[in-house]
Specification:
It is a single chain. By secondary structure, this protein is mainly α. The chain has 10 helices and 5 strands. It has a 3-stranded antiparallel sheet with strand order 3-5-4. A two-stranded antiparallel sheet has the order 1-2. α2 packs across α4, α6 packs antiparallel against α9 (142-154) and α7 (115-124) crosses α9 (142-154). It starts with a helix and ends in a 6-residue tail after the last helix.
Length: 189
């Protein structure tokens, strides 16, 4: 069932507004300490440290230690294949959009923050599908499929077409990256 556990977990991390703000700060000012990032984000030191570690665990940041100070850099972990394209997409999105537009990133990341939504998007890659076709192919209950399709539509990754659903064309850098990653097979980690 979990075709892309790393991808959906990474999306779950990116869907957090605090983590997104911290990632934006690290991209804008590489090498700042945790305490400086916490101050700029307006959150406590322990929370900043925890949220930065979550981003690092997904391969989106690199931490370096100098004495008792930890500095974060926007560098992808080469051991996490999805990290490099995702970090590039995030840097592009940050360059194109102000922080006030981060809600669009949250919606896109939320859209793929569950393994079933990745399955739905993969199924729709084959072309438009009606609701019953999706239900039969994916073995998802009516209520669950309805809810997942709503979230995918809110992220502008899926749209209604005629009597069914199809992939939406979303030009956002994160959306394009995620659709490409859903196409690629992934080794579960």
């Amino acid at each position: 069932m979990e075709l892309h556990p790393t991808l959906w977990r990474t999306c779950r991390v990116l869907a957090g507004p605090t983590r997104l703000n911290l990632l934006r700060l690290v991209v804008a000012t590489p090498g700042h300490t945790v305490s400086r990032l916490a101050e700029e984000a307006g959150i406590g030191l322990s929370r900043a440290s925890q949220e930065l570690r979550r981003l690092q665990s997904r391969g989106l940041l690199r931490a370096t230690r100098t004495g008792s100070f930890v500095h974060y850099l926007p560098e992808s972990d080469p051991q996490v294949p999805d990290a490099k394209p995702l970090l590039l997409a995030m840097k592009t999105a940050f360059a194109q959009e102000s922080p006030s537009m981060d809600e669009s990133i949250v919606r896109i990341a939320t859209a793929l923050s569950h393994p079933r939504r990745i399955l739905i998007l993969r199924e729709l890659r084959g072309g438009p599908r009606t609701f019953p076709m999706l239900q039969a192919a994916l073995h998802i209950s009516f209520g669950a499929l309805f809810r997942h399709l709503q979230v995918l539509q809110a992220g502008h990754l899926v749209q209604r077409k005629d009597s069914g659903f199809c992939m939406a064309r979303n030009a956002h850098p994160l959306a394009r990256c995620l659709v490409d990653l859903v196409k690629a097979p992934e080794t579960p980690r």
